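Changelog entry: the Cytochrome bc1 complex cytochrome c subunit record was regenerated in this release. Current contents:
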Amino acid sequence: MKKLSARRRHPLAAVVVLLLALAATGGLYTAFAPASKAKADDSAQSLTIEEGKKLYEVGCASCHGAGGQGTTDGPSLVGVGAAAVDFQVGTGRMPAQQPGAQIPRKKVIYNQAEIDQLAAYIASLGAGPSVPTKNQYSPEGADIAKGGELFRTNCAQCHNFTGKGGALTHGKFAPDLEGVQPKHIYEAMQTGPQNMPSFPDTTLSSKNKKDIIAYLHSVNSDQTKNPGGLELGGLGPVSEGLFGWIFGLGVLIAVAVWVAARTAKAKKS
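Regenerated structure tokens:
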């Protein structure tokens, strides 16, 4: 007992006790930690990637290469991220029906579960933008006025003032944004598909993207009434100016001709 008491008074006794307590705590955590859940999650993710690889080999590898490295018929997919896959496949643009200046939106071939599997496989090839969460792209609570300002500054040059789309060079075009899902609009800004530049968070923050989506949702909503009257397709001042020039000037010419005709008739009589 005297020896034990002496050891308790030793300067290193507290350190030894602390180390023993930490070792016991670590052992108990290792024994009872939910390792099976972590392994199950890893196993599920691996299975998702494997299923995505199978879908890729059937529907995508002929153009993008067996390992996503790209070919002369399709660009490399290494590093494009899950968001690019979710956008391209989720809007029906991919798999492409035929080559051309631009791949248009068409009927979606894969269901959402298969799209998620493809996205997981492509994401495994290299880091890239991930699929946004609903909180990121939902227009609820966003600043519509700020979104309109950002859209007119960064997007209206191609998509026109209310997102009606427009023609570009060499057979390319900016698509109409009416009816496009908010998630796909967010992903398009993230990844810059086809002719569109990308707008990462360093250029347009997540909040800025959300504001733009809210603006488009507002101007293209069936419940929104155009305060200016006839919108002329929502194409902006060019179409409105052309309308004013043709019809306004036409009315003035018609009035001038009518006045001249009446004057000539009055002189004859």
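The chain is about 60% helix and 0% strand.
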